[in-house]
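Sharing a chain and its predicted structure for anyone who wants a worked example. Both blocks are below, sequence first, tokens second.
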Amino acid sequence: METRCLWVRSEVFDHGVIPTPRSSNLSPAALQQLVATVKSPAITSSQWIEHAQQQLHLTQAQASVYLELYHCFRLQPLTRINTGNGLETAVDLLELVLFIFLQISHREVSHPNAAVDDPWPLAQPHEGMSPDGGSPRSRERRKAHDADRSTGRLSFVKSRLSELLHLASFQGTFVDSIKPHQLDRLRLLIAGQSESAHEEVHSLCSLAPFWRDKSTDAVPCADVAEWIVNSLANELDTCTVVAAASGGRTGVVLKRVSAVQQVGIHRRTLLLTHQEMGGSPVVISDCSMSYIYVLSNTKFTSISGCRNCLIVVGATSSVVTMDNCENVNFVGCCGRITVSNGTDCNLCLCTN
């Protein structure tokens, strides 16, 4: 029986997809045209904004937001290239394009509506929920989010795998075969597990049977796609990867850490310190009339479906995602914050 050593990376879906309607100007064909026009494997910030405006018809602000958000999930190293302005820092073009592909292909704009006979507040609260039951909008959000996490992401990766591999295969031209270093760009969406269940591999190609003899030959995309589908774990993986120092000579290992989840807190004051957190991502959902203090650093913070709360998060290095909240006061430092579908919320931020 073949070992399922791959899983869909959850954090890029939770925090990397901007909740905005899809633009008709953004399409897989347009992304391929952009890559073919640039030709270089690396692209600077100014070059990206210029080509995004010309090829994808994005505004300068939109192109900048996509690039800044991509940096929160970037796995390929930065490089330095010579341009007309001298030596500039550049990112991997194909990994950036895969990130934009996720934006235009995964998010479907929907308008969930509560059922007509769905009363609020609930007369009898359900077990495990706060006594007010949550608003109809929050309950619909929860249903859609749970369905997306359980089946939507895996289905997305499997159904779009041929397009993802085709985009990653570019080396002067798009072909139907892929080399090991090109496959590693898919680490943005797909992670590989090492022999230790608590660590992630630095390279997907090290797990693939095609290159175990250190070969660098191209392999048909169809064969690679079949291996990925057969190796993808079906169960939901909620871990996030953080870099940690290794005790040996390997330098840095990628450790998988589970999110600290606080769900359905009602009329309570909750204090989480570094001892409880340990740098893990934090998920705060469906809480009401509570004071929640996270006095620790974290990489990702998710706040969803909360009402009438004060939430303080000490420092989030990457992204805070705040969705479907009502009358929430949020205080925190973060690299970026994404807010959607909120009402009467106050944000006290220190962010770049």
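Comments welcome. Confidence is low (pLDDT under 50) at residues 108-133.
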